[in-house]
Amino acid sequence: MEELKSPPPCPATVTVRRNPPRRARPPPTPSSAVPRSLFLDSPQVPIKVDFPLFPNQDITPIELPSSAPSPNPKKLDSESLKVFLRIRPLNIATKGSKAKQYGGQEMKNAWPRNPKTKNVQRKVKRSSEICVVVKDSNSVTVSPPESLQESKRVKSEVFEGFSHVFSDEASQSEVYEKMVHTLVEDFLKGKSGMLAALGPSGSGKTHTVFGCARDPGMVPQALHQIFAQHESCGNQLTRNFCLSMFEICSENGKSERIFDLLREGNEVFLQQSTIKGLEELVINDALQAESLIACGMLRRATAATNSNSQSSRSQCIINISCISKNTDGQFDEYPKKASLTIVDLAGAEREKKTGNQGLRMVESYFINNTSMVFGLCLRSLLEHQKHPKRPIQKHFQNSLLTRYLREYLEGKKRMALILTVKPGEDDYLETSYLLKQASPYTQIKFTNTEEVGTGKHMKRPIPNLPMAEHQKRMKLSAVESCSVTFSVLNSILKPYTSAASTHKILLKRQTEEISRLKKEDNHSNLKEITVESDESLSRQVKDGSSLEEAHIEFEKKDRQHQIMTNFAKALWIVLKEYREKLEIAEKEVCCLRDDLTYERKRSSDLEAQVKDLKTKRPLGEVASTEVNISSVAASSTELDSAQQEHMPGHATFCMLENVAEVTEDSKDIQAVEIYLDNGATVSIASYVGAKNICEGAVGASGSVGYLQVHKDSKEGHTVSNTRKLSGIERDSRDNTCVEIESDDPESAASCLESSANENEICCSSVEKESALSFADVSDSVCSSPLSPVETADCSSAVKIDQMPQAVVQSHDCSSTLKIDQMPQQQCQKEPDPTVAVVPDDNALLARDSHCSTGAEAAHSLPTCSSQNKQKPKRRLQPVSSNLLKDIGNLGVIDEKEKPKGVKGAEGLETRSKGSLSLLRLLRNDVYR
Ligand SMILES: Nc1ncnc2c1ncn2[C@@H]1O[C@H](COP(=O)(O)OP(=O)(O)OP(=O)(O)O)[C@@H](O)[C@H]1O
Question: Taking the model in full, what pTM does it have?
Fold first, then answer.
């Protein structure tokens, strides 16, 4: 039997790897080796193929979906951000440089060396390996040094998707042709573009951008291409090129400053995305531009570091702008201004490697920060394009460079990046870091980088939409797309349509104005003017060269029209306001007129009331007023002369008032006529307005008068019924009365009542006896030196100028009236027997009142008694008796007898002192 072999005993301890097992590296194959074309031709570069390359040939035939980053650069050229990679030669000192070398790197740094960098130098010295191997034209493989592979298990990485990878052997012209040539061509077509060089310090950015005299970089070559193509275009299109150059550097690491490198380093300032004060020099040829740039490079801030003997300490930006002109040397109406921007960034630095201290270290912070912000902007743009809902982060605000390049960093303008790396093994970290950061930028898309024109009239430039927005718009329906297109076209054509419409309006206005003038002035030649004007304007518009002038002219006219329209509007508003004010004023005037009419009416009513009240005043008050009987005398004189034939030998006075008041409406009264019973019309009384007061005189020789009122109303002329004056009863409300009655036809009794404005007089007399009674309404005395007249009631002396010889005694013998025109007549008033038998107090009061008071009364009484025997019996009731009767009816009381109670005082009238004293005397006389 075979003896079974037992397995080997297990070790006491077992090590379990928790980390996933490493993937085995593919065996090195000839096909995966570094292409000979890249490195074998270069004798300076040691070829080390100790690790296999990615099987590129096996994968490239596979067609990847379009969403994935396409390895085919031709497909990416049109849409993706162009990212180029250039590998600097590892040992440039071998190219004939006799400078001191440290590990194959030229060291011109005069800066004190950091002691910590000794190890670095040692490493550099012994480093002969490279970390970057060109895999193909679009990808590279970055391998860590062996030390890192072993200790930190860092693996090699492949970075692909670059627009092109330039090996260390690539010449400047090759780089230019693949990277910048297309950009310049687009620039000459009017498309702006930007090329930025990124990379660690000393990686060859400045060398790539500017180069040197023997090996010119991108800028000199671009200038040569620009002017070469410009000359080849001939006279079809003339362009003007301008050059500007500035740098952004830090001030002690605190703030950023911008200096114009073409103007001796003058400081300029950034406002939004433009730099104010930046010099833009016109360049006519490439050599001039190169010399300007060389001068600017001398002004640029540089310093020596351990990484670069002439390290750039600022971000340098060069702008070449192009403005197209016409063949005649004038600028286009909408000139195209394109700019080609080339940016040489300061290289990111590692403190350990550069050995910077102090100010250099501060500069390194600024440089690294700017590089970081630049990268953040691009990553944010990429993130936004991948996720359109996420807005673009505004990282550009964090540095002046990114603020200036905002439009590029937001994907609105065409941009290209050139990454420069150093292939040394010691540069692995910087190179790896840069490629990791920048390789995703290749996925950034530019959808609408075309700039048809940035003319001054393009108020709304066509927006450069990001890819996501573009895709969103692609989903629109055809109709929506058409509407969008229409709106875009509208925005483009808006200036033209507005100009055309303005032109039409102006023409129309002009035609209307001329036709209006033609109508007004009847000009026959205006038609020709109209035609000429239209033609000239049309010609002006049709002529392309004078389109601008016509447009300016139209704008001017339109502006004038607007001014006039606004002025007319303002004028209209002012006139409207004035009109409203005028209407208001007219209304006020109407109101005032109405008020005035009303006030007049009211005033007349009040006057009427006043007169009415005056007429209704009691005689007690009347007696105390002054007599003015001149008017009465005048009236009597006139009446005498006028009625002489009807009343021969009789002096008759009769003043009538309120005759028509009782029965007639005074409004339409035209005349009041009084007829006497002897058949003669004695008088036509004057009628006083609306007061129902008729003033007039009637004379009758002991006869009765009749009164008629003539009225003119709408019904026509009417005459009231004849009214017998002798039968007129005394109105209890006033003291107006006319009594013409006498027993003796020869002794005419006349009753005279006078009513002036403020005076009233009542005279009742008997002709034969010349008894005349006056009721004085004024103060009791009308003094006269010639002929004292005693009134009946108040012993007033009344002088009647026209009757100097007539002496009239009142019937109560208390008054004597001297009347000049009645020389033969004497009137002695006798006591009225009818009054004496009146039983009531009023009658007593009335009877006593007929007698004068005091001594005068005592003096006159004998005369009265002697004459009473001869006089016939009279029926005439004296006015004084009526007066006293009225006083008694009014209930006038003395001040001493005034009741204490308030109620008792109601309805009583307070008398004046004169009337009270009169009453007191009368009472005393009665009770005596
Ligand atoms: N492709 C190249 N061929 C030959 N020499 C190169 C190349 N690239 C760079 N150099 C040389 O390397 C040195 C450093 O290059 P350069 O100054 O351009 O680096 P940089 O990236 O601009 O550095 P920094 O960011 O510090 O300014 C220069 O002397 C330059 O001549």
Answer: 0.44
